[in-house]
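Take the subject:
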Amino acid sequence: MNLGTLVGEAGWLWLILAVGLGIAELLAPGVFLIFLAIAAAITGVATLVLADLSPVAQLVSFGVWTAVAVLIGRRWYRDYPVESADPLLNDRAARLIGDIVVVTDAIENGAGRVRVGDGTWPAHGPDVPVGAHVRITGIDSGALLIEPEAASR
């Protein structure tokens, strides 16, 4: 088998890789493999059209087209965001805003801890004794911002 045959087959291998990546994206959607699939497809077509494209040039083509596809995809998702019925689904801290929690370590000098579910979180706010009920009003650098429950009513 000569080098020309291998390069010609490489185009089909890139196209097979593109199909495989596309199927993987459908099976485990993550909105990233599709960009690799697009880059592999373009590289495959380029390899078939330009029969003397070296393996290094093919890899460079794949890298460049991957970067281009990702940049176009990022712009697309920025300009046309996917609407969600629950936009805070993956933002646990933001979902806590408005919840009433119990102080586990007194809030003194603006810092302490509160119980959220089965764990505790650092909290910042006015001085509050252990056992007091407080409302979460925001999040700052991983710490919950709180205020006494009565003050929020």
About this structure: Residues 3-79 form one domain. The chain has a mean pLDDT of 88. Helices lie at 3-27, 33-49, 55-79, 92-95. The longest helix spans residues 3-27.
